[in-house]
Write a structure and sequence with these properties.
The protein is mostly helical. The chain contains nine helices and three strands; from the N terminus they run αβααββαααααα. The longest helix is centred in the last third of the chain and has 31 residues, at 198-228.
């Protein structure tokens, strides 16, 4: 196999494994045995080792010396810390984007909201369609909101924390069911941002994050209580 083909395979394995980890295909706390992962993705051991090392560097999995790789556990403490950090970072990024707003930035936000509305409509018609496509469109909307902040570092930090929170958001989505109007929440953020009302836009942005975190903590507590009883 050529070096280019090997690199392509390693990247493919990394992408598949990363998506499966973030979407909860691997239980929290489980050991990621290299042989089993290689068998699942039908590849050799080297691409799996490279993928696992990359994911460990991104802090998406844990690496324990002499023991191997493990799926990161979920905890209320980490969720609360991630939520606070995301609110801090995205508040600053959104405020800066609003302060620097241009016609092009507003168009990007409106277009991202439109695409999210279309994807959400498809999900409502066919719930099973809430897959990676919807997630990508949803992520693109939030990226558009902060894209005008003027700091590539700040955007990178926001994206990293959002990725770390993804597994928790999947738990919140499962627990919420149909209780929340996703599009109403996102439309409120976009309208306030385009109107230049930073305080209202920030409040609309961070409140759903906090609600989701509280819901996940409650759901996990309820599940533990049921087991004890």
């Amino acid at each position: 196999m050529s070096s280019r083909a090997a690199a392509t395979l390693a990247t493919s394995v990394y992408s598949q494994l990363r998506d499966d980890l973030l979407n909860g295909q691997y239980p929290a706390g489980d050991k990621l045995r290299i042989e089993r992962v290689a068998a699942k993705y039908r590849c050799g051991l080297s691409p799996v080792r490279e993928a696992l090392n990359r994911l460990s560097a991104e802090r998406l999995i844990d690496r324990i010396d002499q023991r191997g790789f493990w799926v990161k556990p979920l905890s209320d403490g980490e969720l609360q810390e991630l939520t606070r950090t995301r609110c801090w970072l995205e508040e600053r990024a959104l405020r800066e984007s609003i302060a620097n707003r241009t016609g092009r930035w507003e168009e990007q936000v409106v277009l991202a909201l439109h695409r999210l509305a279309r994807a959400t409509g498809r999900v409502q018609e066919q719930p099973s369609s809430r897959d990676s496509e919807w997630e990508n469109v949803h992520r693109a909307f939030h990226s558009a909101l902060i894209s005008g902040c003027g700091s590539h570092w700040l955007i990178s930090f926001c994206e990293h924390v959002a990725t770390q929170m993804h597994r928790y958001r999947m738990l919140a989505t499962a627990a919420e069911g149909e209780q929340r109007d996703c599009m109403a929440e996102h439309r409120l953020i976009a309208e306030a941002a385009i109107d230049g009302d930073a305080d209202r836009a920030v409040a609309a942005l961070v409140e759903p994050y906090r609600k989701s975190a509280a819901l996940v903590c409650f759901a996990q507590w309820a599940a533990q209580s049921a087991i004890v009883e």
